[in-house]
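Hi, here's the filled form for the chain we discussed.

Project: internal
Contact: R.S.
Residues: 237
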Amino acid sequence: MFSYKQYTLPMEENPKSYRIKSYVRRSGRMSTAQIRSYETLLPRYGIPYQPAPIDYQALFGTVQPLIIEIGFGMGMATAQIAQDHPHLNYLGIEVHRPGIGRLLWEMEMRHVENLRIIEGDAVEVLETMIPDRSVQGFHVFFPDPWPKKRHHKRRLMTRPFTMLLAHKLTKGGYIYMVTDWLDYGDLALEELTATPGLVNPYGGFAQSQPWRPKTAFEKKGLDKAHEVYEIIFEVKK
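And the returned structure, exactly as it came back:
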């Protein structure tokens, strides 16, 4: 089993060894529908955190490639992607309960059965619950950019976290990130390029993928003329 702790950077690159925490828990106000969905549907579609590898076949009832989305926000795009690709299994990892409640509501309305949710820290989940070389793809759409310089160390898509992602990918797997912060996009390109075992098929930012629906957050940004930057890395052949 891959360990994130094994892949701290050299002292000259990373003077302090730390476990990245790229989020802050916010309670948020939940609607009546979100509360109902969280309380009634999470036992069905949720996976309690446990320090043991997941049995995908037992979880989904099918043997299909697995896609993991880290930080799905309110989950509308996540539900749409899962609904559009029934031949794939999806696992969403999120810490904010209003978003979990909303995604569960979407799943019920759309009759989505190939999607499961883990409420928890993505680093801990990937380290202990996801077997090595078992994931077809990772989706990381609009992660918190932590714009203040003193907070840049909280940015998710940096090493050694990208090494953890790479080690979980199966042959032919990919990492797909989208951001509207250019400096974060530039940093992610550098970090993923420096991650062993990965290659950038585009050489820089990727073309927009037509199968990815726009998130609610993205639509608001586009209305304000924000640029969107897409990044795709694949496992080296």
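Let me know if anything looks off before we file it.
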